[in-house]
Specification:
alpha/beta, Rossmann fold, Jelly Rolls, six-stranded mixed β-sheet
Length: 428
């Protein structure tokens, strides 16, 4: 009965606080177990250059077909797989027509293994290399939803049909808000191909791998298909930061995604009540060439512009991401130092904290400026840590006094012991 009364009081307090402070903050999707199956599409280059016999003495297309067959046989039951090809049907020399040559030969869904392997076995290297168009169509094949999707691109050459440029297409897809990751596999040791595939992967948070043998290609595709299942998580909630705090979106605890242009400031608001601590971090993906010495700054300010705390750089171990984080506690604590009850905390209006993300990026000449760079913002509001009990060694002057007294006592004892030892030595 007591617990029921307490829960009722907390609910009434929360409703009252909502009425006093305005609309409730947006909350990120907290679904832990995605209801959608993991989805992945393999995109295979079947252009004329795939005839080259430079992988274990076999043609590139033969090695790719073998890898696809083994991947289909080992496909997890819950994973939905699709296969799209490019440059597979048009044998003419009309570039305009050849650059439209991309087809989905296996629709995304539960795989009929026999049918899928038969479709792959009939492929013969033929035409042009419209990588950008194939990526755009593969994204449509996978559709939209709340969970992450993956594309695995296998090619031996750079796009011969731009526009659309495949790297710009990758940025375009990433900017749409759906969590779409493109992993790339290169079958030829060519520097231009490597740079293009790195750019595609980097724009979407994927990986690039150079496959030099049949075993490497098969093993890597299997890893990526398995990763589609392992990374099958709900995508961050898409949010749009504003140019000032006054009309910034009001956010609650969760993970959010946004886009920020070079030298731009993006503002967000978070309500924090007395006795609570705000913890926030931001990561910006470096999805295009930048000049060196770049950085990201995360700050928390009051609504009147006063800075509350400045974020600290936080290395993530990745060279294609820069991060920063901060912590800030509301200062209006009870006078007796006791932790506030949930009823009391809910009844006190929250302090609106403004979070601003800024950057010191400088793009290299000729680099596309739009869309903005991918931003992931993580927000949490927890009970603030209690102040340490006395003696408070965290206070600088207390620690200094204690160290001084300890030094004096140590010196006095050392002096007395030295005099006693000298006197004893002289007597002997």
């Amino acid at each position: 009965m007591i617990n029921k009364r307490r829960s009722t009081a907390v609910l009434i307090g929360l409703l009252a606080a909502t009425a006093l402070t305005g609309p409730a903050p947006a909350l990120a999707d907290e679904e832990e177990t995605p209801v959608e199956p993991p989805k992945v599409e393999l995109v295979l280059d079947v252009s004329g250059s795939m005839r080259a016999r430079d992988i274990d003495g076999r043609s590139r297309i033969a090695v790719a077909q073998q890898a696809f067959n083994e991947v289909v046989d080992a496909l997890p039951e819950e994973t939905q797989l699709g296969i799209r090809v490019l440059g597979a049907t048009y044998r003419g020399k009309d570039k305009k027509q050849g650059c439209l040559d991309t087809q989905q030969i296996v629709p995304v869904g539960a795989v009929d293994r026999t049918q899928a392997k038969a479709a792959v076995a009939t492929l013969r290297p033929t035409g042009f290399t419209p990588v950008g168009l194939a990526l755009r169509e593969a994204a449509r094949d996978l559709g939209t939803g709340a969970t992450a999707r993956r594309i695995v691109l296998i090619t031996d050459g750079e796009d011969t049909c731009a526009p659309p440029d495949p790297c710009e297409v990758a940025r375009e897809l990433a900017a749409q808000g759906t969590k779409l990751v493109v992993d790339t596999l290169g079958l030829a040791p060519d520097e231009k191909v490597r740079r293009q595939l790195l750019c595609i992967a980097g724009a979407t948070g994927g990986t690039y791998t150079a496959a030099q043998s049949a075993e490497e290609l098969t093993g890597r595709i299997k890893q990526l298909v398995d990763r589609a299942r392992d990374t099958h998580t709900a995508a961050p909630t898409v949010v749009g930061g504003s140019a000032e705090c006054a009309n910034a979106p009001l956010l609650g605890p969760g993970v959010y995604s946004d886009r920020e242009a070079v030298s731009e400031h993006r503002w967000y608001r978070v309500p924090v009540r007395p006795g609570q601590e705000l913890r926030a971090s931001v990561s910006v993906a470096l999805d295009r060439p930048l000049n060196p010495d770049h950085g990201v700054l995360l700050r928390a300010t009051a609504t009147d512009g006063r800075e509350l705390v400045r974020g600290v750089d936080a290395g993530s171990g990745r060279t294609d991401v820069v991060s920063a984080g901060l912590r800030w506690s509301a200062t209006e604590d009870p006078a007796d130092g006791a932790s506030p009850t949930p009823e009391a905390t809910a009844a006190v209006p929250a302090t609106t904290v403004c979070l601003v993300v800024s950057n010191s990026f400088a793009l290299r000449p000729g680099t596309q400026t739009t869309p903005g760079m991918p931003v992931e913002l993580m927000i949490d509001v927890v009970a603030s840590s209690p102040a340490p009990a006395a003696p408070d060694l965290g206070r600088g002057w207390v620690l200094l006094v204690l160290l001084t007294l300890a030094g004096l006592l140590t010196g006095l004892v050392a002096g007395l012991l030295t005099r006693w030892w000298v006197a004893t030595w002289r007597e002997n």
